[in-house]
Write a structure and sequence with these properties.
This protein is α+β, with helices and mostly antiparallel strands. The chain folds into three domains: 175 residues, Rossmann fold (3-Layer(aba) Sandwich), CATH 3.40.50; 59 residues, Adenine nucleotide alpha hydrolases-like domains (SH3 type barrels); 93 residues, Beta Barrel (Elongation Factor Tu (Ef-tu), domain 3), CATH 2.40.30. 25% of the residues lie in helices and 25% in strands. The protein has eight helices and 19 strands. The strands form four sheets. Strands 4, 5, 11, 12, 13, 14, 15, 16, 17, 18 and 19 form an eleven-stranded antiparallel sheet that branches. The chain has a four-stranded mixed sheet with strand order 8-7-10-9, with no helix packed on it. The radius of gyration is 22 Å and the shape is globular. The N and C termini lie far apart (58 Å). The C terminus is likely disordered.
């Protein structure tokens, strides 16, 4: 129970469905701040109190479990390390993967519970053979199946999402008000919970030592210098501080962050178009495809609120690997924009979440030679 309206209503529905329910709030931070800033952040002392009040109304036992050390190691430290490596991580995916449906689920099962029930907007359906599948929620505007794409078959077997078939968030709020929950009109939390003021760049600057490096174009020519590569993300336009204008007069965007050489590569907007993404760290959510080595049609989603894009996916050997390593290669029908290593690509077949991968590499739809030729012609 996060202290929000969704988990409160989910707990109440689980009780009414006949389950023996215990409310648990996760203490994920030991920061001294107790109050959220507007709708930013979550998991504060204020949230814990809101969750307890809801549990009291429902009439269920309520506990606070301290997972702050595990959260720091598996989510916060991972977030810092990924940015330092020039990647763009999704901490919500890591929290679901390593905390809520790993550490929490492991403890719950050890204590004799059957499942972890949350207020996520997603649905679990059963196929003709009795296999559980994760599907989008009926309210696509609130669908959260993307951030649950990291769930494995075993984790899916011990998960419950009572809000999956709810038509809208407004209906959940109305139900909460009818039940007397004080959180009925509480704002949704957003942004990164451990950076409640939303200043990711400033937060990282305090934890990753800045080092001056070069800003290059796609041909390797030096255009300027930066004060720390960690401050840049793929697709960024503002704050590049390049004195030399592009030959065509158009703005430049960050195309790559190379931590080994501490360089940032910039180029035209067209070069952000990506025709292929791939990741060697991939999992299947539910039953895996019978022959994933054979290319299959799917949809791919690369951000929580992005539209799914038609694509073809296939598991292939990693080029040059001597250990038999494989990777999930996804080729969208139309190029994707602003994709960065570290992001999560979730694969769907219809409304079903089939699996996911952490993006290791991308292939631009516009080769360097083509861009150089276009610039010369201009």
């Amino acid at each position: 129970m996060s202290g929000g309206v969704d988990s409160a209503v989910a707990a109440a529905r689980a009780v009414e469905a006949g389950h023996e329910v215990v409310g648990v709030h996760l203490a994920l931070s030991r920061m001294p701040g107790t109050l959220r800033t507007g709708s930013r952040g979550c998991c504060t002392i204020e949230d814990s109190m809101d969750a307890q009040r809801a549990a009291n109304i429902i009439g269920i036992p309520y506990y606070v479990w301290d997972f702050s050390e595990r959260f720091k190691l598996d989510v916060v430290d991972d977030f810092i390390a990924e940015y330092a490596a020039g990647r763009t991580p999704n901490p919500c995916m890591r929290c679901n993967e390593r905390i809520k449906f790993a550490a929490l689920l492991e403890k719950a099962v050890a204590l004799g519970f059957d499942a972890v029930c949350t207020g996520h907007y997603a649905s679990i359906l059963t196929d003709a053979d009795g296999n559980r599948e994760l599907h989008r929620a009926s309210a696509w505007a609130k669908d959260q199946s993307y951030v649950l794409g990291v769930l494995t078959t075993e984790q899916l077997a011990h998960s419950m999402f009572p809000l999956g078939a709810t038509p809208s968030k407004a209906e959940v709020r109305a139900e909460a008000a009818e039940r007397g929950f004080s959180v009925a009109n509480k704002p949704d939390s957003y942004d990164i919970c451990f950076i409640p003021d939303g200043d990711t760049r400033g937060w990282l600057a305090e934890r990753v030592a800045p080092a001056t490096g070069d800003i290059l174009d796609r041909d390797g020519a030096k255009l300027g210098e930066h004060d720390g590569a960690v401050a840049f993300t793929v697709g960024q336009r503002k704050g590049l501080q390049i004195g030399t204008p592009a030959a065509d007069g158009k703005p430049r965007f960050v195309l790559e962050v190379r931590p080994i050489t501490n360089t940032v590569v910039v180029g035209p907007k067209e070069a952000l178009a990506i025709r292929e993404i791939a990741g060697s760290t991939f999992t299947w959510c539910g039953v895996a495809p019978a022959n994933p080595e054979v290319a299959f049609d799917c949809d791919v989603q690369i951000r929580a609120h992005a539209d799914p894009e038609p694509a073809v996916a296939q598991v292939v050997p990693v080029s040059g690997s001597t250990t038999g390593e494989t990777e999930l290669v996804i080729t969208p029908n139309e190029p994707l924009t602003g994709v960065a290593p570290g992001q999560t690509a979730v694969v769907y077949v219809g409304t079903r979440v089939l699996g996911q991968c952490t993006i290791d590499r991308t292939v631009s739809a516009v080769p360097v030679a083509a861009m150089s030729s276009a610039a010369a012609d201009a």
